[in-house]
Design a protein that fits this description.
Strand order of the largest sheet: 6-5-8-4-11-13-14-15
Distance between the termini: 105 Å
Number of helices: 9
Structural class: alpha/beta
Shape: elongated
Strand content: 25-35%
Radius of gyration: 27 Å
Number of strands: 25
Helix content: 10-25%
Largest sheet: 8 strands, mixed
């Protein structure tokens, strides 16, 4: 079902009607695709906002040199110390299918598409066959995750791809349709073939609207979470039902599921994408989990005029989800031992709140806007406090500056630790200490933070009962500028004084008790 924001003027030349209908379809500024799922409204994100370069020709990547999607989530070569490309993992995209002959899947025609797309499964017919895309949505989101050509690089360009088609075109209803049973077919196929194809991540840019039947939402959430239980990272778009100033509790399923990484949308400057769905979830937990860019995102498309290698700009949370899926692939390349819940936790705790920056997590933005470099930094070797037990680093608002600092630290048991964050310039930041082990659903666990401290020094401490690993995270207060920061392990003498006084009091009580007993004995002797 297509909705157009502008009314089309009639054309007098009937021979051109068909041509102009196609052109209008390609250039419609508000293309919204609705799917009906067992009487449930199923929305395929995003609300496409198409902007081709001209009315006569598609926008070609070659016109802007090489486009790198990873730059949108700050995974650029100046921020990370090694080349990561998603090798040794496969991303399964559950969507409308894929157009395999686009240059982003053939490396500009230098390789066969089946070197990138290693399997295609039609969940309607339940057979593996040659790839096809009944729309262009599946092609678009797949390019964002794994596209690889001299003109265009997805977030994980060397990751393999498995495409699962769960939508079919209905001539009777004149729209795309699906069902929970079909989606379950696709998910079951992934579970059966995850080892054969090395599937580590599943990405889904569709959803059942929050207003749908609750039993169906619960069922789809449960089916999807079986992937996480099987050791697969699951990423899903939260939907485009937020609206300006409204739209609370509009998170689509399966992004609604607790252990799924529900991805909302932001603009490139960090402000919210106005249509991004808002929490809480159907179980009244805070969602989305985090956000990624979702406005005017460049990606490959299946051209309905029969031209190859065309691209488009589109907006919606569908574009945000495959970026996070690609980032998960890079993380697994760096540390293949990560569990799905650890991947979710690390991406979450390293995200940056760009609205309400001193609120830890909310139903607008979740943990904040993804900072890909910080998620990868969290996997580096343990931080070592040298030079007077301190480390110094810079954070800033500019696009070429990091905004989050994250390192792992091992703390010895039986001790109190205090950390001091000194703000050396005008920029502001907050310090967080996270447990490296998330909760049962992959939510980060904060053990201490400096939130709501208003003095120049930011200080927090924890008692460590036994040897344990933690993440030290410093997040810039978005919009506060740029500056240097000094993070130190300190010893708080107030604690020593309290301990000393307590010890003296205990000793005094013991001696006083002994003196009283001695006096009683002497009285009895008299």
């Amino acid at each position: 079902m297509f909705h157009y924001s502008n009314r089309c003027k009639p054309f007098l030349n009937k021979k051109l009607i068909f041509f102009w209908l196609i052109v209008i379809w390609l250039n419609s500024p508000h293309l919204f695709l609705m799917i009906h799922l067992n009487q449930i409204t199923f929305s395929l994100n995003p609300n496409y906002n198409l902007n081709l370069q001209t009315n006569q020709a598609p926008f070609k990547v070659a016109d802007i040199s090489q486009f790198q999607v990873s730059d949108l989530i700050s995974v650029n070569r100046s921020f990370i110390d090694q080349d990561l490309s998603g090798e040794n993992s496969t991303i399964a995209i559950i969507d409308t299918g894929i157009y395999p002959y686009h240059e982003v899947f053939t490396n500009n025609g230098t390789q066969s598409w089946n070197e990138k797309i290693i399997a295609f499964y039609d969940a309607f017919t339940q057979i593996e066959k040659s790839p096809e895309d009944i729309d262009s949505h599946g092609t678009y989101v797949s390019s964002i995750a794994v596209g690889n050509s001299p003109q265009y690089l997805g977030v994980a360009p060397d990751a393999k791809l498995v495409s699962i088609k769960v939508f079919e075109y209905s001539e009777e209803e004149d729209e795309l349709i699906s069902s929970i049973q079909t989606i379950e077919n696709g998910i079951n196929w992934v579970l059966e073939n995850k080892n054969k194809y090395n599937i580590k991540i599943v990405s889904m840019s569709f959803g059942v609207e929050a207003s749908s039947d609750s039993d169906s939402i619960i069922l789809l959430n449960s089916i999807t979470e079986s992937l996480v239980e099987a050791g697969i990272v699951v990423v899903a778009a939260v939907g485009n039902d937020g609206g300006e100033g409204t739209g609370f509790q509009t998170i689509n399923s399966p992004a609604d599921a607790k252990s799924v990484i529900g991805v909302g949308g932001v603009k490139n400057n960090g402000m919210m994408y106005s249509k991004s769905s808002k929490g809480p979830s159907s179980e009244n937990i805070i969602k989305p989990d985090l956000c990624a860019p979702a406005v005017s995102i460049y990606g490959a498309t299946k051209d309905h005029l029969g031209r190859n290698n065309t691209y488009m700009y589109a907006s919606g949370t569908s574009a945000a989800a495959p970026m996070v899926s690609g980032l998960a692939s890079l993380m697994l390349e760096k540390d293949f031992s990560l569990t799905p819940l650890e991947v979710k936790s690390i991406i979450s705790l390293t995200s940056l709140k760009t609205i309400y920056p001193r609120v830890i997590k909310d139903n607008y933005q979740g943990w904040g806007m993804v900072q890909g470099y910080a998620a990868l930094d969290a996997l580096d070797q343990y931080v070592s406090f040298e030079n007077n037990n301190s480390v110094c680093f810079s954070l800033g608002d500019n696009s070429n500056q990091k905004k989050v600092w994250c390192r792992k630290i091992n703390l010895q048991g039986g001790m109190h630790y205090f950390f001091d964050l000194a703000l050396l310039n005008d920029a502001e930041a907050e310090l967080y200490i996270f447990d490296t082990t998330p909760n049962y659903y992959g939510e980060p666990i904060i053990t201490a933070s400096t939130i709501n401290q208003f003095d120049f020094y930011r200080r927090c401490g924890i008692f460590v009962p036994s040897n344990h690993d933690y993440f030290l995270v410093v997040k810039l207060i978005f919009g506060s500028g740029s500056g240097n920061f000094l993070l130190s392990i300190i010893f708080d003498y107030r604690l020593l004084i309290i301990v000393a006084i307590s010890a003296l009091m205990i000793i005094g009580i013991i001696y006083l008790h002994r003196d009283l007993n001695k006096s009683v004995i002497e009285i009895k002797k008299i």
